[in-house]
Amino acid sequence: MRMAPRDGPVSQITPEEVQRFCEFLYRRTGMSFSESKRYFIDRRLDERMAATGSPSFQSYFSLLRADAEHEIEHLINSFTVNETYFYREDAQLRCMTEDMLAGIVSRKPEGASIRIWSVPCSTGEEPYSIALWLMENWPQVDAYNIEIVGSDIDTRALKAAAEGIYGDRALMRLSPDIIGRYFTKLDEGSYQIDEGLRGSIEFSRINLIDSADMAQQRDFDLIFCRNVLIYFDDASRRVAAENLYDCLTPGGYICLGHSESMSRISPLFNVARFPDAIVYQKPEAKNG
Predict the structure, then answer these.
(1) 44, 48, 88, 115: which is the annotated catalytic residue?
(2) 264 included as an active-site residue
(3) Strand ranges across the sheet with 145-152
(4) What's the pLDDT score for residue 5?
(5) Cystine design at 120: which of 74, 128, 135, 152 (Cβ 3.0–4.6 Å)?
(6) Which domains, from first to last, does the chain contain?
(7) Rounded to an integer, what distance in angstroms lies between the CA atom of residue 81 and that of residue 157?
(8) Is 44 marked active-site?
């Protein structure tokens, strides 16, 4: 049931209430916010309180804890950042086709599956970039059964990813030739990616710090997990790293954002230094 509309912003929320809210969000998502991000927090809370007609923080927080009308999902969607574009940090894409895949296919027969995971995938630019890059730059692309999965905690982003509609800014690093071959122009500044590509990628919701959630995802040869662990604190990063480790096959690789370092998070992975990128590898299984 919706409450009566409230007046004014949430500026009266106390520091203690901010802390209480941040602890709740942290337990649910691993994202770490504090009073120092007060403006960001207030804006998102104001939006959600207005949307639910909550007259006070206390009434909204009660609704949130009860998860009335899936409010937790709406709240998490409002706190995630989905700024991305095609071929972002393309040095890692070059590393994928020049180096990492060579190690992966050395342990597989032709025709075997290669599983690649983009998490968080945001609105789809990264998993689609992986697919495009493989088709354009890896001669062995047709020799293997390549499975690409895109996952995110933001359900709105996942819906947009499945639709695959993008503006000029998202496509700014793609050549006109690639845009012409893989996208359909809908109107001025709006393009939709090829239907076959949309159908080839599986999208799913995931919470990186939820071990039960992550246990559903296994046997990935390569994981792109870029620019999300910076929003976690040390404890959440370790939990996420351990969960990601369990999702990788022995010898599999994980790519982080350029400002992130797995060596400072977890000792589980080996550092793999290639000409185009530094990535992290799950140790290969020992014989015997």
Answers:
(1) 44
(2) no
(3) 201-205, 145-152, 113-118, 220-224, 248-255, 278-281, 270-273
(4) 42
(5) 152
(6) 15-79 (1.10.155), 90-281 (3.40.50.150)
(7) 10
(8) yes
